[in-house]
Amino acid sequence: LEKIRSIMESAVSTRLQFDITCSLMLSGGLESSLMAAVAVRLAEKENAKSKLHSFSIGLEGASDLQMAAKVAKYLDLEHKEVTFTAQQGFDAVREVIYSLETYDVETIRAGIPMYLLARYIKAMGIKVVLSGDGADEIFGGNSCVHNDNAPSAEEMHYETVKRIENLQYRDCLRNNKGTMAWGVECRAPFLDGQLVEYVMNLDPEYKMVKKRCTDECDSRQNIEKCLLRRAFDTADSYLPSEVLWRRKESFSNGVGRNWTKLLQEGASKRISDIEMKNAHEKYPENTPATKEELYYRMLFDECFSNKNAAKTVKSKSSD
Question: How many beta carbons lie within 10 A of that of residue 159, not counting itself?
Fold first, then answer.
C-alpha cells in the first residue's frame, strides 16, 4: 500500500508543473479526488505561491458538482463549477464527433461535457490539466466491479489488460482529443508507466470484490478498487471518508442523472422510425441498435465522408 502511494506521488509530481498554471479536472469521484489530494500535498512541499485550480462540470444539481465542491473545500482548491444545459450539450454533438473522430455512444456521452469543460478551461488561460483516468482499468473498476466479467483472478487480469489496451479508443481518446480541440493538454497520472507496471504485476486477486481484500477490510470496504482506497486510507486523511469510499459513477451519469436520457430523447426526435428500421441496410457492419447510435453514426459520416473512416472506430458493440 505504501508503494502504491509512493509511486502515485511520483506520477503526479512528474506531471504537475508549478512554473505554469496547471489545473485539475475534479469530478468528486475517487480517482480525481485522490489525484487532487496528492497534488495539494506536493504543492505545499514546493511552497507554491498560489492555490491549485480545479474544475468540475455538470447539469444543474449534478452529483459530481456537489461532491467536487466538498472535495475542493476540504483540499482548499481554487475551484470553478461549470454548468451547462441539455440543449447546449446537444448542440455540441457534431463538434464532439468531429473532434473525437468516433461514433461510440458512451465516448460521446462523456465527451460532450469534457469538450465543454476544456473550452472553459482554455478561456481561463490554462493549458495543462490533470485527470483521474486509468485507475478503473488498472485497479479493476468499471464493469469488473461485481466480477460480472471477471469471476476469477485470471479473468480479472485478462479484463484489466483488455481495458487498458482499449483506453486509446475510449477514455484516453475522449480526454486527449476533447481537450486538445481547444489547445489544452490533458495528463493522466494513473497511467504513469511505473504505476501501471507495479499494479498490473500484483496478484489480481487483490482487485477482486469479496476476495482476499475483504479478509483484511471491514464490510464498508467491500467495494471496487478497494486496494487503491486502502492505500490512501491513512491517519492523516487524504480525503473525507465519504469521498474515499464513494461508489463509482460513470462520468456521463455523474454530470447529471438525466443526461443519458436527454441525449436519447434528442436523438429520437431527429431519427425517424423508418430510418431506424432500415439501419441494417445502410450500416450492415456494426449496425446501430438505437436511434441515438444511428444519429451519431450519421453525423460521423457527414463529418468524415471517406467510407473507410468508420473502420477506424472501435465501439463497445464491436468488442
Answer: 21
For 19, half-sphere exposure in the C-beta direction (CA atoms, 13 angstrom radius) is 1
Hey, what's the cell of 230?
486502502
Residue 219: CB partners within 8 Å, gap ≥ 6?
A: none
Grid cell, residue 75, equals 483540499
Phi and psi (nearest 5°) for 82? -110, 125
- Which tens digit of pLDDT belongs to each residue from 93-133? 999 999 999 999 999 999 999 999 999 999 999 999 999 99
> Taking a C-beta distance cutoff of 8 angstroms, is the pair 181, 115 a contact?
yes
What is the rounded distance in angstroms from the CA atom of residue 94 to the CA atom of residue 69? 30
Cα 225 → chain centroid: 15
Which residue is associated with the grid cell 455540441? 92
pLDDT at residue 299 above 70? yes
In 3D space, the residue among 302, 262, 315, 306 whose CA is nearest the CA of residue 94 turns out to be: 302
- Is the per-residue pLDDT at 20 higher than 80? no
The pLDDT-based confidence of 216 (bands split at 50, 70, 90) is: very low
**Whole-model pTM?**
0.90
Annotate the chain with DSSP letters as a single string. Answer: -HHHHHHHHHHHHHH--SSS-EEEE--SSHHHHHHHHHHHHHHHHTT-SSPPEEEEEESTT-HHHHHHHHHHHHHT-EEEEEE--HHHHHHTHHHHHHHHT---HHHHHHHHHHHHHHHHHHHTT--EEE--TTHHHHHT-GGGTTTSS-SSHHHHHHHHHHHHHHGGGTHHHHHHHHHHTTT-EEE-GGG-HHHHHHHHTS-GGGGSTTSHHHHHS-GGG-STTHHHHHHT--TT-SS-HHHHTPPP--HHHHT-TTHHHHHHHHHHHHS-HHHHHTHHHH--SS---SHHHHHHHHHHHHH--STTGGGG---GGG-
Per-residue confidence band for 317, with pLDDT thresholds at 50, 70 and 90: low
Which range (47-51, 142-146, 285-289) has the least confidence?
Answer: 142-146
